[in-house]
Amino acid sequence: xxxxxxxxxxxxxxxxxxxxxxxxxxxxxxxxxxxxxxxxxxxxxxxxxxxxxxxxxxxxxxxxxxxxxxxxxxxxxxxxxxxxxxxxxxxxxxxxxxxxxxxxxxxxxxxxxxxxxxxxxxxxxxxxxxxxxxxxxxxxxxxxxxxxxxxxxxxxxxxxxxxxxxxxxxxxxxxxxxxxxxxxxxxxxxxxxxxxxxxxxxxxxxxxxxxxxxxxxxxxxxxxxxxxxxxxxxxxxxxxxxxxxxxxxxxxxxxxxxxxxxxxxxxxxxxxxxxxxxxxxxxxxxxxxxxxxxxxxxxxxxxxxxxxxxxxxxxxxxxxxxxxxxxx
Length: 328
Hints:
The chain has 12 helices and 12 strands. By secondary structure, the protein is α/β, with parallel strands linked by helices. The N and C termini lie far apart (about 50 Å).
């Protein structure tokens, strides 16, 4: 049996992007034991899949991050892993993997050090769908290829003529100054217009969306929609709700990637981030963007670490959003 250690720090969306890599590893090594190392905020990913056997949480954003990393490395010395794979693009990742003492070490090529310390230093190509970028890490380990994430949840019966709306983004994004979606007032107008078009509108959201949902409810005029905010208590329950929708309308956030994995017809609001790397090229996933002609777009993460002040890239009329959802 192969013991495989996989390191992927990031949010839930990043963990969903990484699932095709884990699925292909499981196909290549069906009797393997896969342990995923991730941030505490993302441990809910285990409820969505059966390819992860164990998880280890390391708080790399906490005040004791270096102590946690050293503690993690020391634990790996006793577990006798056969393979370690890390998605990090930092030059220090190769040192981290080397310190584990694991025989096969796969990571991105970040320079001379990675070529010396890694057994497989893979070129990092960020100009592709994120699932494909992560899957490159195991190109020397398997010929299996899994393109889209797959989730292990109970698929519900479709709700006829339904549009499920998840308007929010993570609180961490907002704290970092990363505005990635339209304002709550526009979301309220979208609900009104969709109801006027005869759609069965369902509103949902997670704990991070409390303020956004509150503002929507204060501004929406129609009462002919279903408010399910707060009824889903876990990622798995949210995924099952998404599976019941004929159409799913959301922001650039983790629920988008859940919907993609479930192959639900999805419409996602995109502003400063790059839809070409965050959604697959598919008729099943539609990016809704502003007609702002900004030469810097997409800028978030590539040209800047926070959103700009004018946010013209998110000046998307509710009428445009509703027309796209109803006609495409």
